[in-house]
Amino acid sequence: MPRVDDLIARLDGAPPAVARAAARNAIERGRSELQRGCEVTLQQIVAQAQKEAGELLEDRVQRVINMSGTILHTGLGRAPLPLDFGRTQGEYAALEFSLETGERGDRQAWVREHLIALTGAEDSLVVNNCAGAVLLALAAISAGKEVILSRGEMVEIGGSFRVPEIIAQSGCRLKEVGTTNKTRASDYSRAVGKETGAILRCHTSNYKIVGFTETPSVGQIAAVAKEKGVPFIFDFGTGCMIDLAPFGLPGLDSFPGLVSQGVDLVLGSGDKLLGGPQAGIIVGRKELIAACAAHPLARALRVDKLTLAALEAVLRAYRTGQLDKIPLLRILGTPLPEIRRRARALAKALGAKASVVESESELGAGCSPDLKVPTYCVAIKSDSPTKLYQALLKVDPPVIGRIEKGLLLLDCRTIQQGDFRPVKSALEKAL
Ligand SMILES: *Cc1c(COP(=O)(O)O)cnc(C)c1O
After folding, report:
1. Is the CB of 130 under 6 A from ligand 1?
2. Which pLDDT value is given to residue 87?
3. CATH classification number, 109-325, choose in 3.60.10.10, 3.40.605.10, 3.40.640.10, 3.40.50.10860
């Protein structure tokens, strides 16, 4: 094994801290390979150190080309953001500072103005994500009391987000009503008592109960909540701001729709079907929002200037009707013939191994289990689709496909303008 300092001397050009870390890692790796009985040469260790140094100097969160067939892929950062959001991308910004008075201002003023105008709610609060919004709303409004939830909505969203556990974490007691397949408005009505802190409804984003089922409408639950004088909180997740039927997704709830049906607090994600940054958007009644904003958890879940700048840009696009500025809606709104044209052009460029196949893109990210839109993919035959899939991860920018029935599929709905050439050259390199 070379000495660390000798190895550092061979890594000219790298800043000292980088060279040292890279040299140490390469030597450690070389040692463990020797222990496993592999042969290790000095050249290999030098090359490994150079590779490690290079990696340390690069941005690790890389741009990728998503052709996986999942439009909102949590592993790929969910919704793509408008690239030109705000003039504040990291600079000093008048974030919590009023340029009118020169004094402390309101961090959420701009997004609040848009959210109120767009949803018809009295007030809003934006926090780190929707999971945080649920925790905060329950803690601020119902701590120490019972939260009524249907047995059909005891959701696990993913990771460790289980609604019954979040209810417990927020200091509330879960009161289950109804059954897995059937819950009626009268079940809610009967369950409300002196101890009730809120009625909670949870959007069943990632599963569906079919068959002999019944669930009251949002309006019916809102009527019970109003009659009994308890808050009605809706964990919406999905977060649509407008009716997405013209984008091929009919029948979904939306923030304004839920507000108008009498939900007291609607909690949604910023980076699902809204098409914005990761955020938890809370809209609803003024006194409930005030209680959320005053709770200590609100500070712990506070959003930063990058989030607010991106969210403001996306909300402004909705408000001004410039929907083509929202990348997610551009993806959903791409006409099928255009997607087919992309797929045909790519397949043609690749020759005999590639063909065009009809397929479906999934929405993903727990929007709704059966939300899909039609698409076209390029299907590539290869002796080892796994190897090809892996090879495409190593090009710059990496291309993410998927393997289905022994073929590598590349979904052409989610490529953006300018992606065509890098995808083509990546494939030529990998094939
Ligand atoms: C996705 C989802 C969440 C979690 O949202 P994040 O913004 O990812 O924290 C919570 N509730 C529902 C119903 C969801 O669909």
Report:
1. yes
2. 63
3. 3.40.640.10
Q: Tell me which residues of the chain have a pLDDT lower than 70.
A: 86-89
Using an 8 Å Cβ cutoff, are 293 and 125 in contact?
A: yes
Atom of ligand 1 nearest to the CA of 202: 13
Q: Whose CA is closest to atom 5 on ligand 1?
A: 130
Give the pLDDT confidence of 276-320 residue by residue, as tens digits: 999 999 999 999 999 999 999 999 999 999 999 999 999 999 999
150 lines ligand 1 (CB under 6 A): no
Peptide bond into 397 cis (omega under 30): yes
Ligand 1, atom 14: nearest CA belongs to which residue?
Answer: 237
Closest residue by Cα to residue 201 from 186, 214, 218: 218
pLDDT in tens, 385-422: 999 999 999 998 999 999 999 999 999 999 987 888 88
Q: Is 199 in the pocket of ligand 1 (CB under 6 A)?
A: no
Distance CA 91, CA 312 (A): 16
Instruction: Name residue 316's amino acid.
Output: R
CA 331 / ligand 1 centre spacing (Å):
21
Where in the chain is CATH 3.90.1150.180?
Answer: 65-77+331-430
Ligand 1 pocket, 157 CB below 6 A?
A: yes
At residue 86, the pLDDT reads: 61
CATH class of segment(s) 65-77+331-430? alpha beta
The answer to whether residues 382 and 92 touch, using CB atoms and an 8 Å cutoff, is: no
Range(s) of the chain covered by CATH 3.40.640.10: 109-325
